[in-house]
Amino acid sequence: MIKALNNLKLWNKSAYQIFPNELVLFKGDIHPAVSLLNQWLMALDLAEELPNHIYSQEHKDVLTSIQLKYKLIPDGRLGPMTRQALLSITNQRIRILKANLERIRWLPKRLPYPRVWVDIAGFTTSYQSSPQRAFHFKTIVGSPKKQTPVLKSDIENITVNPIWKVPHSIASKSLLKEEKKQPGFFSREGFKVYKNWNDNSPEIAVDSVNWQALTQKSFTYRLEQQPGELNRLGKFKLGFKNSHGVYLHDTDKPELFDSANLSLSSGCARVNNIETLVETIALDQGLMPELNNYKKSNSPKKLNLNKHIPVYIVYFTAWPDKVGRVRFRDDIYQLDNALVSWF
C-alpha cells in the first residue's frame, strides 16, 4: 500500500500539468491524456479496464457518477471542475491509505499459520493454513450501532448445536418487543427462560411471566435459545476468549448473505458456509471423527481444538486484491477520520 500511496501523491502533483484547464475531453476524442486518465481512475479504484486513447462512453459514465457526487453538471466531460473533484478524491484516498498503513503497523510483522482472518470492512472471513492454501467466506458483521470489535485472540473450540445465550440488551429490547407483538413468540422460537443472570438461576415457565407488563428497564430474565432450525447461531459456533462476548457463528437465515448490506449483526460475525470452515479446521487437526459424531446429535457438543488457532478481527478500508491492486471499501464504522487526525 506504500506504493499506492506514493502513486497517488504523484497524481496530486502532476494532475495540473497532465490535465490543464484548457483541456476538455468529449466522447470520441482521441488524446494521449486518455490513457493517463485511465491510470488515475484505476489508482483511485473508480474504474476497471477502459479504452485507451479514445474518450468513450465508459469514461463518461465514470465521470458522470463523480460529477453527481460533487453536485456538478453531469455532462460526463473531463473539464477543470471534474478534475478538481478527482483531486479531492485523490486527497481522500491518500488519507485512507495513511489510516490503513497505521493499522498494518499494529499487526505483527509475520502473521502465523494457520490463522483465521475476519475482514470487517471487506465482509470476509479467511482461513489460511499456509501461504498457498486459503479459504474465503462471505461474512455478515456488526451494524454501525453494534460494531464488530477489532481484536486478536485464539480459537479454542467448535460448538455444534450451540445454545444462544441472548445478551440482555437484545433480550430486553428487540426480543421482548417481538413477544409483545406476537404472544407466544418465545415458546415458538425455542427460548428457555431463567429467573436472572446467575449461573445457578432456576428455569421458569415461559408463560409464567406477564411479558406485556415488562419494560426494558424491568426485564431481569435470561433467555437461552435452544438448538434447532430457528436458532440464531445456526449449527456451528467458533469460540475464543474476548471481553466483548463475540464469536464466529452460523445463521438460521442464510438468505441474508445475498443482501446488499452485510453490516447488520449485533457484533458477532456470521460466516457463510461455516460448515466448510469448521470441517477444514477439524480435518487439519485430525478431529473429523469426533466432529462427525457430534453432527449427528441434536444437543450442544463442544469440540476442543488440539491446537488453538489465532484469530484476527481487523478493520481495513483499503486492502490489496489478489494481483496487488489496492481496493477501497466503505468506512462503515466511520473510523478513518479519527485515526487520520492523529497524523
Question: Which labels suit this protein?
Answer:
alpha+beta; 8-stranded mixed beta barrel; 15 strands; 32% helix
Provide the β-strand percentage band: 15-25%
Principal-axes shape call: elongated
The secondary-structure element order is HHHHEEEEEHHEEEEEEEHHEEEH
Radius of gyration: 25 Å
Helix content: 25-40%
What's the main sheet like?
Answer: 8 strands, mixed, barrel
Low-confidence stretches: none
Instruction: Kindly report the average pLDDT value.
Output: 95
Number of helices: 9
Strand order of the largest sheet: 1-2-3-12-10-9-4-13
Summarize the structure.
With 343 residues, the chain is an alpha+beta fold. The chain has helices at 2-18, 33-43, 57-69, 80-105, 168-181, 185-188, 274-284, 288-295, 336-340; strands spanning 115-119, 124-130, 133-142, 151-160, 164-165, 191-194, 203-204, 222-225, 236-240, 248-249, 263-265, 269-271, 301-314, 318-320, 326-328.
Per-chain topology:
Elements lengths: L1 H17 L14 H11 L13 H13 L10 H26 L9 E5 L4 E7 L2 E10 L8 E10 L3 E2 L2 H14 L3 H4 L2 E4 L8 E2 L17 E4 L10 E5 L7 E2 L13 E3 L3 E3 L2 H11 L3 H8 L5 E14 L3 E3 L5 E3 L7 H5 L3
Parallel strand pairs: 1-13, 3-11, 10-12
Antiparallel strand pairs: 1-2, 2-3, 3-12, 4-9, 4-13, 5-8, 6-7, 6-8, 9-10, 14-15
Helix pairs in contact: 1-2, 1-4
Structural notes for this entry:
Strand 2 (124-130) and strand 3 (133-142) form a beta hairpin. The chain is built from nine helices and 15 strands. An eight-stranded mixed beta barrel has the order 1-2-3-12-10-9-4-13. The relative contact order is 0.16. It has helices at residues 2-18, 33-43, 57-69, 80-105, 168-181, 185-188, 274-284, 288-295, 336-340; strands at 115-119, 124-130, 133-142, 151-160, 164-165, 191-194, 203-204, 222-225, 236-240, 248-249, 263-265, 269-271, 301-314, 318-320, 326-328. The two termini are 17 Å apart. It is elongated. The chain is an alpha+beta fold and 343 residues long.
